[in-house]
Design a protein that fits this description.
single chain, alpha/beta
Length: 616
Amino acid sequence: MRDFLKMMRQYASPYKIYFGGAILLNVLSAVFNIFSFAVIIPLLNILFKIETATYTFIPWGTEGYSFKDLIVNNTYAWVTSFSEVHGATNALFLLCAVMILFTLLKTACYFGSAAVMIPIRTGIVKDIRLSLYDKILSLPIGFFTQERKGDIIARISGDVGEVEASITSSIEMLIKDPILILFYFGILLFTSTELTLFIILFVPGFVWIMGVIGKQLRRSSLQAQQLWSDTMSQVDETLGGLRIIKAFNAEKKMSRRFDEVTSQMRDKNTRVAVRQSSAHPVSEFLGTVMIMVVLGFGGALIIRGEGLLGGTFMDASQFIFYMVILYSVIAPIKELSRAAYGIPRGLASIERINKILQAENPIQDPEKPVALQEFRDRIHFEGVSFCYESGREILRNITLDIPKGKTIAIVGESGAGKSTLVDLIPRFYDVSSGRITLDGTDIRDVRVKDLRALMGNVNQDPILFNDTIFNNIAFGVDGATEEQVIAAAKIANAHEFIMEKPEGYQTNIGDRGSKLSGGQRQRLSIARAILKNPPILILDEATASLDTESERMVQDALDKLMKNRTTIAIAHRLSTIKDADEIIVMHEGRIVERGTHESLTALGGYYKKLNDMQAL
């Protein structure tokens, strides 16, 4: 429940005015409902002659009379007077009209309170999703190497949906039902204190039984949501690997895996749903038991003619009113018990959501960042080592100088640490020891946004978005004009194929650019980097997955992009980096060789071995 209250403080505060309106309307609804029921007493007592006593008006504040006695007596006196003057039939019609009026006011307030709650429910869900999305954007890349993409999707969709279904839908009950219970119990106490105290003896047992039934609901719901994450992860893997699945005729194998996880989820959800659906019948049974006990107990007192403590007990019409109110209080208690079941289920989803929202981000801006607006001199690695949280060391004591305007190529076998090395420069990760400086300033002492503004990336797998060609090129530059985008596309050798598309630059390229070839996607990513015009360029095997013709066009675009820039290029094909100012050869996280293509070939070490293997 602590998580629920914390969530409400965080996400419900912008909707305080709506909560205030809901509380006011529910209070009015309860009051009008009580008044509509109160009309029953004079109807029974006077019009149908259940009570034959004569009532006369007693001035308010008369000594010796309680407020209860005065309000009951004067109401009866007024109805009696009206009936004598205008006739019993007209009095009946008047009381019926009063009941209709109060019922109309009650239902109008009830509808108003429900309508006011809708912006709260939809707003909280929207705010949670936005918080999750913003948190995902802010977390470092390292966080997502330990989490499955399908699991994250499940949290932002399924878990937030569960919060909406279980918790935000319960907020209305948590506001309305306590108000109704409070007012109804107040009237019950007002009508008969001793009978109400007798009823209160049942409440602890009522709550205890509900607690026993719902105790395991949160744990089961947490397991069910985890299985939902497994389902989403497999769907994500299937969509990403559909070509391989079909190529290896593995459709039935994948179907069996999916059937297994969905069957487990079905079984868990069945147990959760059965436990949750028990709320209504259990509360219905307990409510009926309480009504019958009170009916028997109160009826016995009426027959006896006096209360337990002596004195006059209520009359028959008052007892009927009391039972109507008591029966009315059962409905909000049942709804409250249903909310008590729904909230634990939603809390399991909140727990999973909070795993992301409360995840620590080690990549933080300094309290007093050093101003960084341009790149003037060099990037320097000074004794840099890096290891992941698992403790596996990836880089070992790297010392490297990258002067402005130079092209530095990094080569080595897979797993040598090449990509990790360049990922440290824009602070996708932070070094474990040592430091990286830019113009003599530790990059941890500047704002991350300022640091990354100086850099452009072109990766082996171009990252494009399901949007138009224009928007993908202009992705990193706010307010880019059509002329600037076209100019960048021409430099990247992309303008010609773009204009061949029916809608030109407004052509939608599909999910991750699926409507384009590999070479076309890569040239768009190069155009994006050209438009940003960064002084530092990071190329991560930008031509590794292309055919010869596409590689030629992309390499030509890269050559144009690299002019007058500081370039750090991870290379798979050594032929693309022969003209680099310096080639860094890495092996098992260390720099083992460095120099130009000619000097490293003459050295006869790791580089020559790699070069000879590609020559074959």
